[in-house]
Design brief:
UDP-N-acetylmuramoyl-L-alanine:D-glutamate ligase; 10-stranded mixed beta sheet
Amino acid sequence: MIYTVTFNPAIDYVVHISDLKPGTIRRTTQESLQFGGKGVNVSTVLGRLGVENVALGFVAGFTGRALEDGLAADGVRTDFIRLHEGFTRINVKIKAGTESEINGRGPAISPDDLEMLLFQLSRLKEGDLLVLAGSAPAGVPEDIYQRILARLEGRGVSAVVDAEKGLMLEALAYRPFLIKPNHLELGDMVGHMLRTEEELVEAARSLQKKGARNVLVSMAGAGALLLDESGGVHRAVAPKGEVRNSVGSGDAMVAGFLAGWQRTGRYEEALRLAVAAGSATAFSEELVRRGEAEALLSQVSITEMEQA
């Protein structure tokens, strides 16, 4: 079973307006509600790609109930911990030619709440896979991913980590199955700007030497790069299309990779579905659906760069 963890999920209120000027009133031309947070996004796309999974994390208040209901309507199975105070955050995404965002803070998570999550995770079994995605919100220890992985060490649970620099670097000692930095994050992790594909490969390989089994580097419209644990280096070129939404494409890539790996056991096919899912999300106003991803598979070209 695949489990995802989202510490601070959100309801995104997405509005389209003609223009945005402080101090004025505008009416929306289009609006929608989306239920997200990085791990939640991974769970949603996994479900749409036909992969069973469970979304874990924290919710609170009436917005937390709305988020659970919305995810259930989309077929997402959840087992969130309900907090006694506060409410699940609402993020306002304003599309007025350019994108603007106002992101909520979310509820406070106490040490007792964290222990409840750790108890949930203690029930994971050999062969399960845990996706840790996103940042640690205020009040949560900065080494929370390290604590989680330490508790699971030696139990046959694989981990996927898609998070900010510090969280991802700390996870390397526990040999995660997959990490997914983008090309800018990868440069930040190794301490210098990466200008060529050769430099990207070298940087990703340095993270493998520190413990990562597979490193998937997203490169926006340029596609992605995968260094797999057998030494293969796969370069994927993304399909061409109009980018309509920058939110969630990286999460869709993670879900596509896991779905492709589960279906085929082949890294190049996992990469192909990862790039198709990420691209289809970028070309849409919401997270990708199965047919949209599969329609782009034939447009994702993959070349083998080298062997370690």
